[in-house]
Design brief:
Amidase signature (AS) enzymes, 17 helices, about 40% helix, globular
Length: about 475
């Protein structure tokens, strides 16, 4: 199929799936610009000179990533008329690679949510009336329903991986600092990571290869010197052989085997481990005791950073302007209930009375979570002054992405409270606190009669040491199609 025909098919799917509300600003069907871009990419492909593997492909962007040609709303009333004067670095990188911007996808307001129902533009609908996950639910549904070739979102505590698990797609959160955050509206600076959603791991890798570059405009972007240090440590002979020879050492975190784990997710987890074992890899139990406290720490640290970042939306610098009671109106009417809840949580934990008991303690827990991961992996953290290799550690960790299948969308809107939504992040938050690469890959389950591959999918998460993104993607490929 030519790239033009593929682009037209994606655009047609955007129109046919409009009820799913995956896009806030979809691709303009009547515009001749993207037709010309696709035709030019077809010509380059025929001449054997494509710009990249993304040349002529339609890539969608979560609507908290700034674009000049589409509004950037963050799914919030306070930004519903805002258009950025510049493109985010990741947008520019994708366009330089020949890709076509397929529109801006729906999300939980400012990325705060687990089901993509906290949007000023209406909630995202997954197929079969199930939750699409959040906050990058629109990006995941757009990929799952072939409204785009791939999409970019953001992952603060699981906002790429949870939607991937709920929609049967691949969701990849790279190591913190590898992809530029310049031009991405901040939620929590020390946690925010641009991530990739795609139908296949190979597509996610192609997008990652285009974006994995230092950006001097982003203060959190890993410097060229640090990147070379990561590559040199993780490309040592005894480490790079993990990608080529057997066996890998697969870690199973015991603390993730919680009693609330649904039978279908547990079955998919077992099936994943069985598949890797059959391929010759060894499976070993691993203990990560401090991950039991990771979720509590996250919901102190992330709201604290959010309350600081959202202070600029005061109706003067940013935000909807009201003629009377400017600040109060902008904050009260401009933000939705979940955003206001997290601002209040963050403001409290940063107050003088609560700082030591909440924020400081959460930072200590974060450090202990990082130490647990470092103790578990065979490869040492490449930016730490520690021995480069452990004979007793594991190469990757395998665990569920979410403790249960996607709930009914009606339940998430009408029945579940905020705490129920927060609990969905219990398996994704630890890797975010440690800044580690993680990918959610779909693994198929059985129905009640034991018919294999007929009961939908569960997301299985692969977590690696910092900078070990390529190994994480490799193991994700080993698991693709498991259960079919």
């Amino acid at each position: 199929m030519s790239l033009l025909l593929e682009a037209e098919r994606y655009a047609a799917n955007q129109s046919s799936h409009i009820a799913l509300n995956a896009f806030i600003s979809p691709l303009p069907r009547q515009s001749g610009q993207w037709h010309k871009q696709a035709k030019d990419a077809d010509l380059r492909a025929k001449q054997g000179n494509p710009k990249s593997k993304l040349d002529g492909r339609l890539i969608a962007f979560k609507d908290n990533i700034c674009t000049r040609d589409f509004p950037t709303t963050c799914a919030s009333r306070t930004l519903e008329t805002f258009t950025s004067p510049f493109d985010a670095t990741v947008v520019q990188q994708v366009e330089d690679a020949g890709a076509i911007v397929a529109g801006k996808t729906n999300l939980d307001e400012f990325g705060m949510g687990s089901h993509s129902v906290n949007s000023h533009f209406g909630h995202v609908r997954n197929r079969r009336h199930l939750s699409a996950g959040g906050s990058s639910g629109g990006s995941a549904v757009a990929v799952a329903t072939e409204q785009c070739y791939a999409s970019l979102g953001t992952d603060t505590g699981g906002s790429i991986r949870l939607p991937a698990a709920y929609t049967g797609t691949v969701g990849f959160k790279p190591s913190y600092g590898l992809l530029s955050r310049w031009g991405v509206v901040a939620y929590a600076n020390s946690l925010d990571t641009v991530g990739i959603l795609a139908k296949r791991t190979s597509v996610a890798r192609d997008v990652f290869d285009v974006l994995n570059k230092h950006d001097p405009r982003d203060p959190t972007s890993l410097s060229p010197l640090s990147r070379s240090r990561v590559l040199s440590k993780l490309s040592a002979p005894h480490l790079s052989s993990r990608l080529k020879s057997l066996p890998l050492r697969i870690g199973v975190p015991l603390e993730y085997n919680i009693s609330e784990l649904s039978p279908s997710v547990r079955q998919a987890w077992y099936r994943s481990l069985e598949r890797l074992s059959q391929q010759g890899h060894t499976v070993e139990p691993v203990s990560l005791p401090m991950t039991n406290h990771a979720l509590s720490a996250y919901y102190i640290l992330a709201p604290a950073e959010a309350s600081s970042n959202l202070a600029k939306y005061d109706g003067v610098r940013y935000g909807t302007q009201f003629t009377n009671k400017l600040y109060a109106k902008t904050r009260g009417a401009g933000f939705g209930p979940e955003v206001k809840r997290r601002i209040m949580l963050g403001a409290f934990s940063l107050s003088a009375q609560a700082m030591d008991n909440y924020f400081v303690q959460a930072q200590r827990i974060r450090r202990l979570v990082q130490r647990d991961f470092d103790a578990a992996f065979r490869a040492a953290h490449p930016l730490a002054a520690e021995p480069p290799y452990s004979q007793t550690g594991v190469d990757v960790l395998i665990c569920p992405t979410a403790p249960s299948p996607p709930p009914s969308i009606n339940l998430t809107i009408n029945g579940a409270g905020p705490l129920d939504a927060y609990i969905n992040d219990v398996f994704t938050v630890p890797a975010s606190l440690a800044g580690l690469p993680a990918v959610s890959v779909p693994v198929y389950g059985d129905d009640a009669a034991g018919n294999q591959g007929s009961a939908g999918v569960a997301g299985i998460q692969v977590i690696g040491q910092y900078g070990d993104d390529e190994l994480v993607l490799k193991v994700s490929e080993l698991l693709e199609g498991c259960g079919l």
